[in-house]
Amino acid sequence: MPRLSSEKINEIRQSVDIVDVIGTYLPLEKKGRNYVAICPFHDDSHPSMSISPERQIFMCFVCHHGGNVFTFLKDYLKIPYIEAVKMVANIGNVDISKYNLESRVKPVDQKLEPLYRMHDEANKIYNHYLNTKLAIQAKEYLNNRKITDEIIETFEIGYAPNNHVLLKAFEKMNFNKVSMFESGLIIEASNGYDRFTDRIMFPLHDASGRVVGFSGRIYKQSQNESKYMNSPESSIFIKGDTLYNYHRVGEEARQAGYIIITEGFMDVIALYKAGIKNAVAIMGTALTHGHLNLLKRLSKTVYLCLDGDQAGRNATIKSIDILLSAGFIVKVVDLPDNLDPDEILDKRGIEELNAVIKRPLSSLDFKMNYYYEMTNMDNYEDRKSYLETIAREISRLDDIIDQDHYIQQLEKKSGFSRNIIDQLINQNTAVRIETAEPPKIPKFQNQRLLDKYIRAERDLLYYMMNDKNVAMMYEAKAGFMFNDIYRIIASYIIDYYRQEVVLEVADLISSIEDENLVQNIIEISQLGLPKLKDTKAIDDYIETIKEKTVMVKKEELTKALADTFDPKQKAQILKEIIALKDKE
């Protein structure tokens, strides 16, 4: 299979609009010919990242991070470059199936490979035993829960029997005991024994789809054990970096425009039964930075669908704040009567579960209801506290129509007047503005302090990017730059023009892996120097570079003259120095 050529990569890049792609992850605001956004690559409180639809590049004028659509996806989602290319190809409907692409799975540390192999083997063994006589009762339990063979196959559900099958299998495969114990699948005691016995097994996968752990569930009333038993954390399984079903939902979540977060894997399976395939589970843990980074890869909109009991509602409140602070749009599926998704499906059916999912509350609607239910509205101090809490939330809204809507709701719920609510919100807004960080000033270099030779090379590169004729003049008359980075950039530009007439910066950087080079190209392309009326300025830049060449050569000859004691060599060096002076 052929590898992706630079021409094909450019075709993929040109199949989408960078504004549309970045706009699916960040709120954008039109400003002149460009768009601006809060920069996600540094601690930004004012829009400092500019996105150019004309050039198809982005750049932050504070942290100077920039690039094309591939760069943004790679750095924002923290994925390999080739994964970003695949994503853009998918968005732009460019068929790359016939090309040889790098594997999606990262190269595995050889120390970790035995752990992955043991988990993969365990999954196969558990899958096998679910279809044996030993698992008759377990299979009946699954049938009673309406978990079909198709669901069993999709979610790779298995069964762990009582006879320590993993230990025996691992010994036959010559895994050492240290690795067995480290995997968490075998408990360290005397000769060891299987952690999971007589349980229905649900494999847990990492983001790339490799099995890294398990959750085992009891299925008989006579089993006096914890309902669920999970793998301990290991070198390959970290709870805070794992979302159940994540590796399956990518395309479904992107098509739906949102991802659903549930508490447990039975909730994910319940939604799957109802035809909803864009759900993941946090498996009883709080949301972590690792979870947020995974979610960002799929969508900026999240539906929280945690249990409807008090513990679930408390967890929802905490999750809302975590997600909002990370820049997500948050909606809440308000589950009725203390039920979870699996219970709604079982007691009320598919139609009711679908209806609940399709009418989510805004995060603020949920907060207003949550705190209202938790407040004794007959007590003045409690009612006042409720007012202050919700007023703070309303003051954070940027849309005045949304503000007015929630102010009206707060007036009805709290019993306080519109005038009082308006004053509170104005106070909160004033405090936010006063305590906000002042806008950071872009770190542009002072033109006067910039070395004239560096400036000549930099400005020449800008004009080379904008005009093929300038690039050809540089190649013919100079062909060299002293700054190492600029010299490499110039060679990339010349090579680009051998194939094209007009240079697209977004395409130029597609073939460059060095991030420092990419950032320099983006910065230079954004200089906005005046248009040329003639070639005089270009000739001046080239003369300045030549002047630097002569100056450096003179310094080298002067040093050589001081270091030599041979009269003939001295005479020759002096002759060369005089010749250089004649050129000045």
TrEMBL record:
Top-level EC class as recorded in UniProt: transferase
Catalytic activity entry: ssDNA + n NTP = ssDNA/pppN(pN)n-1 hybrid + (n-1) diphosphate
Superkingdom: Bacteria
Stored PROSITE patterns: TOPRIM
Record flagged with keyword Acetylation: no
CDD domains on file: TOPRIM_DnaG_primases
Keyword Metal-binding: yes
Keywords recorded for this protein, A-Z: DNA replication, DNA-binding, DNA-directed RNA polymerase, Magnesium, Metal-binding, Nucleotidyltransferase, Primosome, Transcription, Transferase, Zinc, Zinc-finger
Gene that encodes it: dnaG
Known function: RNA polymerase that catalyzes the synthesis of short RNA molecules used as primers for DNA polymerase during DNA replication.
Record's cofactor remark: Binds 1 zinc ion per monomer.
Protein name, UniProt field: DNA primase
Swiss-Prot/TrEMBL cofactor(s): Zn(2+)
